[in-house]
């Protein structure tokens, strides 16, 4: 019997973050506590490391694995940081950022109203990944965003 697989599997979106982490099992527990993640699956190696795991935060899947230098899979801690921030939209940004910090995240940018219509704060998780957590509070036209951005930069 032959079936045609969907090009994008059910439950996934077009783009899915894949995090490389030192101690992925510990990170899963952190993401559960900090962001309300649910664990979908994990594939351990014989030595107990995770070669692949998946969690869901809200309706979004996130894949992760343990660092594996042999496969050139290096964590932010190994490479000295990350240039990527995952944007996480939630109903109550203040509560989620506070919960993440209480769970061990480092506050990088306090929660504040932003000119583009979000209330946002940024944290670094204990594994070196950055999360910009936001609640959308205002629908702003592209023209108004441009006007507000110009005003912000003129004030500096």
Automatic annotation (TrEMBL):
PROSITE patterns: VOC (PS51819)
Coiled-coil positions: none
SUPFAM superfamilies cross-referenced by the UniProt entry: Glyoxalase/Bleomycin resistance protein/Dihydroxybiphenyl dioxygenase (SSF54593)
CDD domains: VOC_like
Chain ranges of the VOC domain: 11-136
InterPro entries: Glyas_Bleomycin-R_OHBP_Dase, Glyas_Fos-R_dOase_dom, VOC_core
PANTHER family: BNAUNNG04460D PROTEIN-RELATED, VOC DOMAIN-CONTAINING PROTEIN
Name of the protein in question: VOC family protein
Lineage of the organism: Bacteria, Pseudomonadati, Thermodesulfobacteriota, Desulfuromonadia, Geobacterales
